[in-house]
Known about the structure:
Helix content is 46%, strand content 14%. It is an alpha/beta fold. The chain folds into two domains: 9-105 and 216-286, Rossmann fold, CATH 3.40.50.150; 132-213, DNA polymerase, domain 1. It starts with 8 loop residues before the first helix and ends with a strand.
Amino acid sequence: MEFHTPVLLTETIDLLNVQKNKIYIDCTLGHGGHSLEILKKGGIVYGIDQDPKNLEIAANRIKEAGFEKQFFPIHSNFSQLENIINNNIKQKINGLIIDLGLSQNQQTDQDRGFSFNDKNSLDMRLDPENQELTAEEIINTYDYDELFEIFSKYAQEVYSKPLVLKIIRERQKTPIKTATRLANIIREYYKEHHHLSKINPSTKIFLSLRIVVNDEFNNLKDILNQSLRTIVPNGNVCIISFHSGEDRIIKQFIKDHNFPSKPTKPSFAEIKKNPLSRSATLRSYKIV
């Protein structure tokens, strides 16, 4: 299969400063791209992923590469970092990677609801077995004020008010059950009112729904705080974000703790090769 291409891979691994036989946690395992590079440098990796399908893909990939003895897959949300370390490792770790983007298969698969072209689902749960709230439930049952808050706070959508009204009108005709229909409703509004957008007009709304369904901002705050208690002195944390709201949370945390840090953005060459990297920002800090 075609594996997801990790963003800012070289820069992240360099900042992590991998040492042989030291322990690292890849908190968003995905297809294991970052983990493989750590393993190649002799590190020991515990890979966490909330998506059981990606966990299986990465574990098989790493096994085929011959690194299974140094790798330990864990099905969980990274907000449980402290519990995972206490139950499985029983000592502080040497470094941490968090990549907050979706893997390529999550973005394109049918039946997940992340893709604008998904004609079967409006789900958006990373772990359908253990999560209840879906984007479909939000879109069809939340009232005007609740939807407006999501679209304006998380999506920073300029046309939140009229879009919410249009969605409510449309769901009154027939429940909105697929990502394709929701994307078409948003696209129709932009077209009807001659609004222009450099990106697909559904992008921000879809991202805001994903953030709420998976409680992503609160989980990010949790793991940032837990990093202070779980990593050895001089251990490094690397976080790749794709949303201004995520980056603000990380930037404020770094500022609050006076960690020296500066953002790293993808090069022009990387963006040309992998357009999905264009909105990525890498920030890192060293535990003192």
